[in-house]
Amino acid sequence: MSNLLINGGNKIVGSITAHGAKNSALPLLAATLLCGGQSVLHNCPDLSDVDAAMKILSYLGARCKREGSSVIVDSSNIQKNEIPDELMREMRSSIVFLGAIIGRTGGAVVSSPGGCELGPRPIDLHISSLKQMGVVITEDYGYLRCEAPFGLKGADITLQFPSVGATENIILASVLAKGETIIRNAAKEPEIIDLADFLIGCGAKIRGAGNDTIHINGVNWLGTTEHYVIPDRIEAATFLAAAAATKGKIEVKGVRPEHMRSILSVFKESGCQVTCKKDSIYLENNHELRGVPMIKTLVYPGFPTDAGPPILTMLALAKTPTLFIENIFENRFRYIDELKRLGAKIRTHGNVALIDSAQKFTGANTSATDLRGGAALVVAALAAEGQTKIDNIYHIDRGYEKIERCFEILGADIKRI
Ligand code: UD1
Fold first, then answer.
1. For residue 377, which phi and psi values (nearest 5 degrees)?
2. 165 CA to centre of ligand 1 in angstroms
3. How far apart are CA 349 and CA 62, in angstroms?
4. What is the pLDDT of residue 116?
5. Where are the beta strands (DSSP E) in 28-89?
6. What pTM, to 2 d.p., does this model score?
7. Could you give the C-alpha distances from 93 to 56, 233, 404, in angstroms and in order?
């Protein structure tokens, strides 16, 4: 089991290019199942979650290989429609394969994803939407058996909450369904637009991705395409938070600043200088940070829950307090106990965290509790005095490609041991 060893105190300075977005790559890999040939995803991050998705594709009969930052999937020959429990468990986002497998084969058997480190992870919206499209779903012995006896048919679906995963699953199930599907109160995240763009490139008929209402007209067959995965706005936010926390300066290249408006406004409010070009962000911080009176996580275009942990950590060093309200996941604050080992003064009550001002971090032995919480510990360790050891970094590897290499390039004293 490896750990990260970080000697804090170095300023994060320099230039780095963001990798492709994990949260786009996973549904895109699922989408390749719908294509009757070879699809290519460029800028596909090299992450353990992406490896897990590739294992699922291979298990189902697709031929899958990585060439540098591109992943090539040939799904001409899909033989199975069942994902075994051990593969489902490797990645909690594997539920996004459900819509694609049913779309391709007319049925699917997957184990129920159950809870995860962020709390219970219900899939009621996925299930009820698929049922509206003609899928009969039975649950036995922890497995969901799904079958569309009369084929998938379009439906007019209103989501009670604009779930990212449910919106993706409905899109994946509907592109080859009979007739029109309408998704109302759909998620508007950039990853939804990326998925639609890939599918449109393959011949799907989708209108309105990125808006509240998405229309999908089923087609009989999808071809293939080459697609560039959008940049990872959360990875970019983590680099920016580390630079701000260490009074450094950074240029993050290969990003889409328009995807990060709510994040960038927090950096600006905390006193950082932020300059955006079309595909890069420059951030510099020479002063004590200011706290932000209130940050609330919201669905896009609001402040993303995934950017909360690294940015909350940065704000723990500010000269005035911050009130942080988490509205998306109930167990998001587990990493805060680990941050306290470095000296953070943060009080939590339910979904609210009050971050006291003028803190200093001191190196400590810590353990990543989840993906973004692990990234928060890296940010804290980089800004801390002394040495920090972070274990359970497999959580971090799910969503950050070679994090130690990235921060080493930016001047950090960081090693994987
Ligand atoms: C995706 C992202 C995750 C991000 C989240 C919110 C991927 C692989 N993961 O997760 O990193 O934090 O969006 O931006 O893209 N919910 C239900 N019933 C459902 C589905 C969801 O109650 O059927 C609830 C969830 O418990 C949660 C909220 O809705 O409280 C948001 O979930 P959702 O938008 O579905 O997130 P994911 O797609 O799981």
1. -65, -35
2. 6
3. 47
4. 60
5. 38-42, 63-67, 70-74, 82-83
6. 0.97
7. 12, 18, 24
Task: Compute the distance between CA of residue 175 and CA of residue 41 in angstroms, rounded to an integer.
Answer: 19
Task: Tell me the mean pLDDT in the region 393-415.
Answer: 97
Ligand 1 contacts CB of residue 20 (under 6 A): no
CB 121 near ligand 1, within 6 Å: yes
Find tokens 């799910």 and name the residue. 398
367 Cα to the center of ligand 1, angstroms: 24
Nearest-angstrom CA–CA distance, 187 and 214: 9
**Ligand 1 center to 381 CA (angstroms):** 28
How open is the CA angle 286-262-274, to the nearest 5 degrees?
A: 25
Q: Which residue has the tokens 């938070």?
A: 241
Task: Check residue 114 and give its pLDDT.
Answer: 55
Amino acid 182: pLDDT: 98
Active site residue 116: yes
Q: What burial class does residue 236 get, using C-beta atoms within 10 Å of its C-beta: 0-12 exposed, 13-18 middle, 19+ buried?
A: buried
- In this structure, the chain runs to a length of 417
Instruction: Give the integer Cα–Cα distance in Å for 194 and 42.
Output: 13
d(CA 163, CA 185): 9
- Ligand 1: does its nearest atom lie under 6 Å from the Cβ of 328? yes
The residue from 35, 44, 64, 116 that is catalytic is: 116
Q: Ligand 1 centre and the CA of 111: distance in Å?
A: 18
Q: Which among 22, 164, 191, 194 is the best mutation to test ligand 1's pocket, defined by most ligand atoms within 8 Å of the CB?
A: 164
Q: Whose CA is nearest to atom 33 of ligand 1?
A: 163
Ligand 1 lined by 234 (C-beta under 6 Å): no
